[in-house]
Specification:
single chain, alpha+beta, OB fold (Dihydrolipoamide Acetyltransferase, E2P), DNA polymerase, domain 1, 5-stranded mixed beta barrel, 10 helices, 5 strands, globular
Length: 192
């Protein structure tokens, strides 16, 4: 619903901030990693994730898109809710989490409050390879802009296609470097 918020910080603490966006105050839950990046700023942009629950709408904010994407990946894991995902990303940077997952270092995850051996193994199993792809993509492209392939993937997922199916359909296309986002989407839809 909200891709990002940009405004002045009315109040900030290591876990929560109030952001004034054109006279509207948003209460945003943040990680320690995000707090470290924005604590000395008066104005900033936070990439957001809105969680709608039966009893509340909770807004989470992240200093960069990579952290938000990792948060969303964690939410897809059984037994990992928003509070646990936020604790993980407060305890480990996205790079440290990627190294723990790729190195199958369950002990690093178990050191995070609330993460037991089974949950650590489940996180490693579910995220293996997923974080590496994003880290590799961000190393070759600017952090601010998605690649054409990433834009197409996001569009397909927003159309209601499962991420794994969308990724497989894009892979079937072969060399897509000369295609526009629209062409990739059209061809991927045909390949499904």
């Amino acid at each position: 619903m909200f891709a990002f918020l940009e405004g002045s910080l009315a109040h900030s603490s290591p876990s929560l901030l109030y952001m004034n966006v054109h006279g509207v105050g948003y209460e945003v839950n943040i990680t320690l990693q995000t707090y470290a990046k924005i604590q000395h700023l008066e104005k900033c942009r936070l990439y957001t994730h809105l969680q709608v629950r039966e009893d509340a709408w909770v807004l989470y904010g992240f200093a960069d898109e990579e952290e938000r994407a990792t948060f969303r990946q964690l939410l897809n894991i059984s037994g990992v809710g928003a509070a646990t995902a936020r604790i993980i990303l407060s305890s480990l940077t996205t790079d440290e989490l990627e190294r723990a997952v790729s190195g199958e270092d369950s002990k690093a995850l178990e050191r995070v409050k609330g993460i037991g051996a089974k949950t650590a193994q489940r996180i490693i199993l579910e995220l293996k390879g997923k974080l590496q792809k994003r880290a590799g993509a961000s190393a070759t492209s600017p952090a601010v802009h998605n690649t054409t392939q990433e834009d197409a993937l996001i569009a397909l997922v927003n159309l209601g296609i499962a991420r794994s199916m969308a990724e497989a359909a894009i892979k079937k296309l072969g060399d897509i470097s000369s295609l526009s986002v629209e062409d990739i989407i059209k061809q991927a839809l045909r390949a499904l």
